[in-house]
Design the sequence.
């Protein structure tokens, strides 16, 4: 399977638009047809994923596009019209629970453009004249421009997009072509009452889980796993923060979210730990590095084992049932009539955190600071629901300081567990523990200031 990370800017332009002089070399003109597929429930489109079969000059390939931070990952596999190749279908288990995919749109594209090189960056700048087909009949047409990074920095891609805007094009939000044809709107309109806002926010978490599920299964980008885990955590926090708004007992559902979060967390925590320790290992004296590298290899084996368990969980009926229950639970939340607003919920979470902060001494145990961090996350998610970006920013900073503290606690505990097999390991682990304690002391010195900034921003 071929995989290509894409960073691109999309623009739209009037018919007949010509590229300004960008100093590039002309690209060969192309004509291709793309048939897009989705389930009957439009699960892929609602999650921001695209699956298509592209034919060009007699060659047929299937392409699956996944989110990858502010870019996208394109997976490509040869295949015919019967259905997506097995390698791609395996990544779509959470979506195929709705049934098989089928064609939902056909686009015929005429593409021309230029390969532009500037300041060490190379980008393809293309104009797509797109015809929306119904059998052999054209039912709609539009023009789309793409600036796609090939090599270099994203800054120059943005600069080229600015030049195209100056020439009359209009920057878009990057929505894939097929979403325009299907009129997919991934974001719900702002809700009026607090329970409706809670439902909308929870549905957004389900979309995030489904969007990152294929990338988590693939395992190429650790951010897919991270974003999926965050969506699960945020869902639990939102249910907890909004508990006064509904009368339902969501405990069984929340327990299933906890189960999924633990499976994701077992892999993610090892990713974080290995990434944290690897540069510190390389900073050790040459005599200590071999033993330290051996400890890293042990952690990597543990990570492989945890990932195997995660993939087994994602392939289970339990996980698919959880996804179905997610939709049912959110749609079925019955109002309590409490009359609370989203601001009330956010202030309630902040008061709980303030009470805990006041009870926390300067010599607090590590577990107390970890509990503060979790409270900080709840505040952050509650203010996200309320739409207060200023408080969200400060809550994240508070969370990050205490997160650094907790990461150092976990790292020291793990290193102590790895150190006992040999004197060389014990010595190398001791060197690394010294660095972790310094990081922990720094976080302890900073967290109260982060709290004060958070508290001020919420007034």
Sequence:
């Amino acid at each position: 399977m071929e995989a290509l990370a894409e960073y691109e800017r999309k623009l739209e332009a009037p018919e007949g638009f010509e590229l300004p002089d960008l100093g590039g070399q002309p690209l060969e003109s192309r004509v291709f047809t793309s048939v897009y597929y989705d389930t009957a429930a439009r699960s892929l489109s609602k999650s921001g994923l695209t699956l298509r079969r592209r034919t060009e000059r007699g060659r047929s390939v299937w392409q699956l596009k996944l989110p990858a931070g502010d870019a996208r990952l394109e997976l490509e596999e040869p295949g015919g019209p019967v259905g997506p190749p097995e390698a791609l279908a395996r990544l779509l288990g959470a979506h195929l629970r709705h049934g098989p995919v089928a064609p939902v749109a056909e686009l015929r594209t005429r593409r021309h453009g230029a390969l532009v090189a500037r300041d060490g960056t190379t980008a393809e700048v293309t104009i797509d004249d797109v015809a929306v087909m119904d059998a052999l009949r054209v039912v709609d047409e539009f023009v789309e421009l793409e600036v796609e990074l090939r090599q270099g920095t994203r800054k120059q891609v943005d600069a080229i997009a600015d030049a195209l805007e100056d020439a009359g094009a209009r920057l878009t939000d990057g929505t894939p072509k097929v979403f325009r044809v299907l009129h997919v709107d991934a974001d719900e309109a702002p809700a009026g009452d607090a329970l409706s806002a809670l439902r909308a926010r929870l549905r957004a978490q389900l979309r995030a889980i489904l969007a990152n599920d294929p990338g988590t299964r693939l395992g190429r980008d650790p951010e897919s796993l991270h974003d999926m885990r965050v969506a699960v955590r945020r869902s639990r926090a939102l249910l907890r923060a909004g508990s006064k708004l509904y009368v339902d007992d969501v405990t069984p559902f929340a327990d299933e979210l906890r189960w999924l979060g633990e499976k994701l967390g077992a892999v993610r925590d090892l990713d974080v730990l290995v990434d944290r320790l690897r540069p510190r290992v390389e900073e050790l004296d040459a005599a200590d590095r071999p033993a330290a590298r051996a400890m890293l290899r042990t952690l990597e084996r543990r990570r492989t084992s945890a990932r195997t368990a995660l993939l087994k969980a994602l392939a289970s009926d339990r996980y698919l049932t959880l996804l179905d229950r997610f939709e049912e639970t959110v749609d079925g939340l019955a109002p309590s009539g409490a009359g609370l607003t989203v601001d009330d919920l956010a202030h309630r979470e902040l008061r709980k955190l303030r009470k805990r902060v006041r009870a926390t001494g300067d010599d607090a145990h590590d577990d107390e600071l970890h509990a503060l961090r979790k409270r900080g996350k709840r505040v952050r998610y509650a203010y996200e629901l309320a739409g207060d970006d200023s408080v969200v920013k400060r809550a994240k900073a508070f969370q990050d300081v205490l997160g650094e503290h907790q990461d150092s606690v976990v790292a020291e505990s793990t290193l102590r567990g790895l150190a006992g097999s040999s004197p060389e390991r014990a010595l190398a682990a001791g060197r690394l523990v010294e660095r972790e304690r310094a990081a922990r002391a720094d976080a302890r010195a900073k967290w109260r200031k982060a709290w004060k900034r958070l508290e001020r921003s919420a007034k």
Q: What stands out?
A: The first helix runs from residue 43 to 46. The first strand starts at residue 2 and ends at 6. DSSP finds 14 helices and eleven strands in the chain.
